[in-house]
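SAMPLE LOG
Freezer: B-3
Tube label: C17
Construct: single chain, 152 aa
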Amino acid sequence: MESSNKSSNKSSKNNYSKSQFNKDLERLNGLINAIRGNSQSGGKIKKDKNKKTFKIISVNGEKIPGGEGRYVGENHSIVSRKACNAACRKRNVNKINFELMETTRGSNRKVKSYNCARIKKKNPVIIKLKDDKGGIKSYSVDYDVEVSESIK
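STRUCTURE (predicted):
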């Protein structure tokens, strides 16, 4: 009788498909997260929890009601380069002073001031990337961005 039990166990293991395993694993992870208090009932699950959001609150000493833009990155220094580039492009200038405020939920809304300059490159860098449709899209990087934190 033992031999018949062993053969039936082998056949049941072979019937367990990889897709069924993945479904069970996903369900198990959901239960574990629910116990830990990490359950989320809707919306997109955030994979990178180290990202913070910022916005520009003043440019060249002029306050901007409601702020300008929404910049996402791991810290002030990364986001300041993005904000500088966008603000200079919007105003069609190459030097500005601006203030960034962190707007991440639960943050202390810290504000930092920056001096920024965009310097035209002698030889632009061309970056080629695949687009969604399988084609190749090229971008030209024409400026270097230099940002330094200023003291109020």
